[in-house]
Specification:
Helix content of chain A: 40-55%
CATH class of chain A: Mainly Alpha
Oligomer: homodimer
Largest interface: A-B, 21 and 22 residues
Number of helices of chain A: 5
Strand content of chain A: 15-25%
CATH topology of chain A: Arc Repressor Mutant, subunit A
Shape of chain A: globular
Largest sheet of chain A: 3 strands, antiparallel
Strand order of the largest sheet of chain A: 1-3-2
Distance between the termini of chain A: 36 Å
Radius of gyration of chain A: 13 Å
Chain lengths: ~100, ~100
DNA sequence: TTACTAGTTCGAAAATCATAGAACAACCAA
DNA sequence: TTGGTTGTTCTATGATTTTCGAACTAGTAA
């Protein structure tokens, strides 16, 4: 489908990760991925136009928070665990537990 | 000088705190407060116009991350520790340790 | 080939945000 | 009272962000 680019975790500054998580829809995406491990875009519980969803996935990907792999016509998204453990310790727990 | 309003911590959603920390200047303010406990606006190591700085302090205050108290002509700002311990566990450490 | 599905990219509109000058209020000190 | 300091509020401008329709690419399947 397309060659997805994922940044080096170390090159992502904190404010970029914070910005990626400053949107209600993107937090909802992260929580869905926490619950289901791996989801295609159209399986996400988000009521937005395709183009908008694609934009949000790009923001999360650029911030090093998710990884996308192609499988047939769909692309499967998952949380980039090492980003949180290594670069942003505690952040994933915050997303998981915070109201 | 003015009656500063501080929100109930519980009413601050995660995306609001994330947005407050999605700006390089505001992260710098938080780090200065981590180091010095309490600082007036004009003591912060930020090269911005007064009006801009006042805006950033308002964003941090509205997100429940800092508390401001008046003392004479100046207003002293400090990190609202209970916000982090109680509402956003791990976030303060992230600000402290993250590059 | 044709049709369908999944997702991206382009272009544009609306909303939000960062920035700062100018005027202002409040306090302090001479 | 006059002047200096501290910070807010108003207003405006430029930049960024969110949103989505439309056109597009790539894979799958009939």
């Amino acid at each position: 489908m397309k060659a997805y680019v994922h940044p080096e975790i170390e090159s992502v500054p904190l404010e970029k990760a914070m910005h990626a998580l400053s949107d209600r829809s993107r937090i909802a995406i992260m929580r869905a991925l926490l619950e289901h491990q791996e989801l295609a875009c159209n399986e996400l519980p988000i009521e937005l136009a395709k183009a908008t969803l694609s934009h949000h996935m790009g923001v999360l990907r650029d911030a090093g928070l998710i990884v996308t792999r192609v499988e047939g016509t769909k692309c499967l998204n998952a949380i980039r665990e090492e980003a949180f453990v290594h670069q942003f310790p505690g952040l994933l727990e915050l997303i998981r537990t915070c109201k």
